[in-house]
Amino acid sequence: MEPVSQTPSPSGGALPPETFDDFFENALSGFLLADSDGRILRANARFADWVGCAADELVGTRLADHLPVGDKIFYETHLAPLLRMQGCFDEVALEIAFKGGKRLPVFVNALERRDAAGAPMYVKFIISKAMDRRKYEQGLLAGRTAALASREQLREAVALREQFMAILGHDLRNPLAAIEGGVRLIGKTPLDDKAKGILTLMQQSLARMQSIIDATMDFARARLGGGIAIDRRSVLLEPAIRHVVGEFRIAFPNRVINADISLPEVVNCDPQRVAQLLSNLVANALAHGAADGVVRVRAVLEGSEFVLSVANPGEPIPPEAMERLFQPFTREDVRPSQQGLGLGLYISHEIARAHGGELRVSSTAEETCFTFRMPRWLP
Amino acid sequence: MLFAHGFGCDQNMWRFVAPAFEDRYRTVLFDNVGAGNSNLRAYDYRKYASLGGYAGDIVEIAGELGLRDAIFVGHSVSAMIGIIAANKAPGLFRALVLVAPSPCYIDDAGYTGGFTRAQIDELLASLDSNHLGWSASMAPTIMGNPDRPELGEELTNSFCRTDPEIAKHFAKVTFLSDARGILADCKTPCLILQCSNDAIAPKAVGQYLHDKLAGSTLAVLNATGHCPNLSAPEETIAAMKDFLR
Predict the structure, then answer these.
(1) Interchain contact, A80 vs B231, CB within 8 Å
(2) B131 tagged catalytic
(3) Which of A300, B16, B18, B74 is most open to solvent, judged by the fewest CB atoms within 10 Å of its CB?
(4) pLDDT value at position B13?
(5) What residues in chain A have per-residue pLDDT under 50?
(6) Considering only CA atoms, which of B191, B134, B131, B120 is closest in space to residue A77?
(7) In chain B, what is the straight-line distance between the N-terminal and C-terminal CA atoms, in Å?
(8) Residue A86 has what pLDDT?
(9) In this complex, is the C-beta atom of B136 within 8 Å of any C-beta atom belonging to chain A?
């Protein structure tokens, strides 16, 4: 073979000439020259070394013969056709089967040499070791598999928990209704004042239990069913809003609740849900705001929107709490008097969403204000 | 003439053979669902858990195109899919060309499939361990890397693409399939193109098919490997033309 170069060495004498023969034979990669059928014509020392035999024993065999069965099938069904179709393949990861059963992970590329008519004459394979790369990739794959499994487990656990909540809420309703019925019946019998007082307390507790179950069911339905269910119709909202405000005024006779209500035209919404939202906001305002603060309810129409806001003076909501405010099970602070689940704002937020609207909060030293906006009509 | 590619490929594998028949036939080529440019999202793991799922697609394509008395040309496992389709819909095909076919890849009592059960298990295990050889070469976009657009630019091996999970599934279905039972029901004339040195569909398999398919013709090609339609197209075309005369 022709010598390739003849450059002076650093020490001053002539370097031995580099030849293509030496380049082919003594390389870190395996080189194979094969005929158009893939039969090896010449293999270099590196490849022969990997396979564990002499280079001339490889002549007449095929690359596929030195692959484990999985890779052999992959070669015959995918790589060999690819080579014929596009004249090459590149960046393919395979394993060479050593004598003695060991495997060497490698990267392979192949290039056909074709004649003027495009018919294949030779195929050149370059095979490089990929041990480190393979270890790295396996580490990544294992990590990804573990992460996916963990995510799946988590998803299942969450779904199970929410199903449980739905079932629990549902199953509690019957005994609760029975107790309510029983209390009502007892109330119709002759009772002394003490007994009447006890029944009243029982009814209040039952009402609270009912609202906890309702909140639980709403929550479960929102999470599992993709949103709070609402029943829309076109209504004048003023009566419903006045009713809610009235109830709170009776329940909290020592507090001042101002109501600025101007709703001369219909709004397309679920009035019970809007009342529920207002009720949550007013209850929060009374509980969390300044103990003697005036709670201001405002319900108006602004252009195409229905706007409902509840404001109260008091300590501003800290910024960290603001982020989590509308998430389920957060309570700004848990006070002994509070018996709720921490779902009120979450459910209100879902009600707003179900109406195609939004619930926003602003909180300064002067006042905290929750504002619900929604389009008056269906889009 | 309807061409059905086999495992590992797509319709491009017919590029040297189909044109030779365009003067005499209306040639129809398609990608299996899950291969080539098909809609990978349409791959239903339950439907394609058996070859019958693919056979249903063939019947559906033929129905859509109004094919009757057509020639079916199927490679490898698609040869069996064609037989299933022909059994399902008599009159659909008047002849079946089976290119490197095999009804069962695993050796059995009195049957040489070419692979032992242990070897097929090894194949399936290497698929399960997500051997990168399969996923790198076959994935259209294995990462989808928006912040490294140069990685997505030129697909290195642009033919015969599929999704690696689908490839795994199709490989399992193919190499664990056993279609020997349907051969007796086949009433359509068949041409078996057997390669002389095919590790996947060895000569014993071609002979077996010839024995079981009544009225079949066995043509042993000089071509080696598993895809004579690519490695020896002229020989393949000649054998087909000879049969279809």
Answers:
(1) yes
(2) no
(3) A300
(4) 92
(5) 333-339
(6) B134
(7) 14
(8) 86
(9) yes
Query: For position B152, what pLDDT does the model report?
Result: 45
pLDDT tens-place string over residues A251-261 = 888 999 999 99
DSSP-derived letter for residue A232 is -
Specify whether B50 is catalytic. Answer: no
Give ∠ CA B163-B168-B169 in degrees, rounded to 5: 100
CB pairs under 8 A between A and B: 103
Instruction: For A146-161, give one letter per residue: b (16+ CB within 10 A) or e.
Output: eeeeeeeeeeeeeeee
pLDDT digits (tens, 9 = 90+) for B35-67: 888 888 889 999 999 999 999 999 999 999 999
* H runs (alpha helix) in chain A: 20-25, 45-51, 69-74, 80-86, 131-188, 193-224, 238-251, 271-288, 319-324, 344-354
HEC string of chain B?
Answer: CEEECCCCCCHHHHCCCHHHHCCCCCCEEECCCCECCCCHHHCCCCHHHCHHHHHHHHHHHHHHHCCCCEEEEEECHHHHHHHHHHHHCCCCEEEEEEECCCCECECECCECCCECHHHHHHHHHHHHCCCHHHHHHHCCCCCCCCCCHHHHHCCCCCCCCECHHHHHHHHHHHHCCECHHHHHHCCCCEEEEEEEECCCCCHHHHHHHHHHCCCCEEEEEEEECCCHHHHCHHHHHHHHHHHHC
- SS3 category, A39: strand
B17 pLDDT higher than 80: yes
Instruction: Evaluate whether B42 touches B33 at the Cβ level (below 8 Å).
Output: yes
- B198 belongs to the catalytic site: yes
Chain A, residues 125-184, CB within 8 A of chain B, namely: 134, 137, 141
Higher pLDDT, B141 or A23: A23
Confidence check: pLDDT of B141 > 50: no
In total, chain B counts a number of residues equal to: 245
In whole angstroms, what is the distance from residue A292 CA to residue A254 CA? 8
pLDDT recorded at residue A331: 60
Model pLDDT, residue B151: 47
By mean pLDDT, which of A337-351, B134-148, B209-223 is the weakest? B134-148
Task: Tell me which DSSP letter residue A7 carries.
Answer: P
Residues A151 and A154: their CA atoms lie apart, in Å, by 5
Which pLDDT band, with edges at 50, 70 and 90, does B156 fall under? Answer: low
User: Which residue has 């031995």 as its token pair?
Assistant: A16
Give me the catalytic one of B38, B57, B198, B216. B198
Q: Given B5, B31, B38, B76, which residue is catalytic?
A: B76
Q: Which residue has the tokens 């005369």?
A: B245
* pLDDT interval class at B153 (50, 70, 90): very low
CB contact under 8 A, B133 and A91: no
Neighbouring C-alpha atoms within 13 Å toward the C-beta of B176: 13
